[in-house]
């Protein structure tokens, strides 16, 4: 069954390794960036908030493809000689970070006001309040949206080939051009993407459980 | 801060508070002495909650002064009325305990962790000591058997008793209670009032907003009746609740007679 897929599987899996590496980097650092910036946005003075608003607004309104091009061509312009992978990875971290920022900020805003007042009334100051009361409750609310953003990010790594970063979909297109077995190959690719995304969904379910508590 | 027994713990002077154009507090004067239990009565919307929240500076206010233990609340003492800033507001709040109608326990922390939160994170008390003192407070409110439960696993009355213990853990100079039994099923009200009665007997300074007329009559040293953002009448419960001086308080009492 699927002889073309079988013979080309090692090549596709090689591409998958790049997809996984790129995805892992983008998801981990994008989420970290978003958590930090989203938390700052909830506690910082107005000018800092405006800056963060602008960041979120701009990146959420632009296709990731454009951001990748922009990163790829503008890093050299400022004297940074980066390979395609690094350029794509950095661009995507900043891009995904904007989405996670918004998710985290929304989750923080969704923590009931009574929690803030209770913390204030035992004399807690802003930073310990964020750390002990607000962020732990917000993280739980943020797990589901951040999971969605992460899955989106994994799929968006398939655009990386546009600036010459070779990965799974790039490999798939090469194989299809050579073999013309589009259905077989892309069916295989679909399954590989699913296998990459599935553990993340599982991890998110675990995280949600870990952060959860009885209501 | 040196204070003698006769100095007021809480002192409110000419307090005015508006939400936008709506003036909610129209010049409140109130002194609460050490160990005194003041019960605040009044119809809905009369500004009872707002007054309590000003004392804890959960609300800003436009004019007047409040002091707790001699410390100014919210704004510098004197003519300048500069805001005190976050650190000093937090410092004042350490000395003011507040219990809310909706409990507001930290749902992601166990009962004992809720009680330890203030001492450990604000006062920097060692965890072991905070736990020991916390367990004693939980025993006092009858909740030590649930120390490791999460708030969501408790009844409303149990949650409220834990909330009282959490406030007490900061060893406040005064405790503010804002209709702390209003959200409870009737059969759970008693257990919370009993804890509050106990505190009053131990000499805790308390300001209690409540609709529980029985509690006012039996526990209050002084009853304050608010209406329309002013204090209309105040006095010992035995006096003014038996013979109200104003028609407004008289009407209020007769409307709430069944309690
Ligand atoms: N955050 C707010 N913004 C605008 N108006 C408010 C706010 N909080 C309270 N008010 C208004 O201020 C007035 C006094 O409210 P407050 O909650 O102090 O009354 P209360 O005496 O505690 O009443 P209740 O017995 O119903 O609790 C009401 O008219 C209320 O609508
Ligand atoms: Mg009220």
Commentary on this structure:
The complex is a heterodimer of chains A (215) and B (259). Chain A has helices spanning 3-41, 46-60, 64-77, 84-110, 113-121, 126-156, 168-179, 182-211. Chain A is mainly α and 215 residues long. Chain A has a single domain (3-210), classed as MetI-like fold (Orthogonal Bundle). In chain B, the strands form two sheets. Chain B has a six-stranded mixed β-sheet with strand order 6-7-8-3-9-10, sandwiched between helices. Chain B has a four-stranded antiparallel β-sheet with strand order 2-1-4-5, covered by helices on one side. Chain B is built from nine helices and ten strands. Chain B is of the alpha/beta class and 259 residues long. Classes of the chains: A mainly alpha (215), B alpha/beta (259). Chains A and B meet through helix 5 and helix 6 of A and helix 2, strand 6, helix 3 and helix 5 of B. Bound molecules: adenosine-5'-triphosphate and magnesium ion. Adenosine-5'-triphosphate binds next to strand 2 and helix 1 of chain B. Chain A: This is Amino acid ABC transporter permease. Chain B: It comes from Antarcticirhabdus aurantiaca. Chain B: This is Amino acid ABC transporter ATP-binding protein. Chain B: Keywords: ATP-binding, Nucleotide-binding.
Defining traits:
heterodimer, A: 215 residues, mainly alpha, MetI-like fold, 8 helices, flat, B: 259 residues, alpha/beta, 6-stranded mixed beta sheet, 10 strands, 35% helix, 24% strand, binds adenosine-5'-triphosphate, binds magnesium ion, Amino acid ABC transporter permease (chain A), Amino acid ABC transporter ATP-binding protein (chain B), ATP-binding (chain B), nucleotide-binding (chain B)
Topology of this protein?
The complex is a heterodimer of chains A (215) and B (259).
Chain A: H1 3-41, H2 46-60, H3 64-77, H4 84-110, H5 113-121, H6 126-156, H7 168-179, H8 182-211
Helix pairs in contact in A: 1-2, 1-4, 1-6, 1-7, 1-8, 2-4, 3-4, 4-6, 5-6, 6-8, 7-8
Chain B: E1 8-19, E2 22-33, E3 37-41, H1 48-55, E4 63-68, E5 71-72, H2 86-94, E6 96-99, H3 111-121, H4 127-140, H5 156-168, E7 174-178, H6 186-201, E8 206-209, H7 213-219, E9 222-227, E10 230-235, H8 237-240, H9 247-255
Parallel strand pairs in B: 3-8, 3-9, 6-7, 7-8
Antiparallel strand pairs in B: 1-2, 1-4, 4-5, 9-10
Helix pairs in contact in B: 3-4, 3-5, 4-5, 5-6
Bound molecules: adenosine-5'-triphosphate and magnesium ion (MG).
